[in-house]
Amino acid sequence: MTQSPKDWRPQTRLVRGGMARSPYGEMSEALYLTQSFAYDSAAAADQRFSGEDPGFIYQRFGNPTTQMFEDRLALLEGAEVCRATASGMSAVHVALQGLVRAGDHVVAGRALFGSCRWILSHWMPRFGVDVTFVDATDPAAWAAAVRPNTRAFLVESPANPLLEVTPIAEVAALARSAGARLVVDNVFATPIFQKPIELGADIVVYSATKHIDGQGRVLGGAILGGAELMGEAYRDILRHTGPALSPFNSWVLLKGLETLDLRVRRQSENAARVTESLANHPAVGRVVFPGRKDHPQANLIASQMTGPGNVVAFDLGTRERAWAFLDALGIVDISNNLGDAKSMATHPSTTTHRSMSESERLEIGLTEGWVRMSVGLEDVEDLADDVLQALDRV
Length: 394
Prior knowledge:
The chain is of the alpha/beta class. 41% of the residues lie in helices and 14% in strands. The model has no long low-confidence stretch (mean pLDDT 97).
């Protein structure tokens, strides 16, 4: 008997999930560069728009190449439905907006990517949505923040940029008891190393720009969850506000998924080796990496993640020392991105988290000495040598 795709192991899902060949039998997925679609008759168009015929209508509503990407990522994640978006931030924005309305309340982990924090602090309150930020590592803080009108929880785990980890199963249980939905940004862990839906999350979001592309080419995002919730919360907002992922980007991301497992595992191995160099250098005050036993939540990480990811954060004490390190790097690029085949390092206080106030940054422990490094696929000894020579010049 032929196996169902749901019976496939992850690596097979990454290569063959969602495949929908045209009559030509192409080996590489077809790229459908079309804005719209034709119908055999006026009645056929009516049936398509009514939903009686589930075919394609318009690129903003769906596209065959994009659907292959969505189906493949959903199969990997263990979600019933995936909806792709034009960027990771559009995914986060839509994921939240689809769950709330004026008068509702959101509880969020206080350690978030700068743009995510901005949406919650400055954008959603303009539309009558209140937000409370909590220490995401403390279930009691989540419980204490709940109100009768709480409708959504949002966490990043591991969080950007200092890699704190949320006990997802406990927070998911609190959300359910409050009648709220838990949204988990799983970018740093990747779908290879953490499965939030299995831990109780309602919605998972990704910036597919990061590891899923992972080669510096295109933007993309994804929202994943159960079929009923995805339909109720997101069908109309995605159709009518237009954060659609282009077919070309969908095709690039499809090809990225084929090698995702190979890339993130090697990147994580490289990150562990680079972290050793950082931890043993006198210029470094503190190193945070989910693969180290001295991570404050090492036991939690072992229970809900199967790998550490490729991002490491370390404190050099001051902005001047952090910048001196960055400027001395020879192989590692200075860039605000992460999850790329190329290693890159950034100064979060002046780049990715610049939109946060100083008090907000200090609230999450982000002082100006911190550097965030995304470790890539270069030879690991070359990376270690580059990091050490830069540290020697701090």
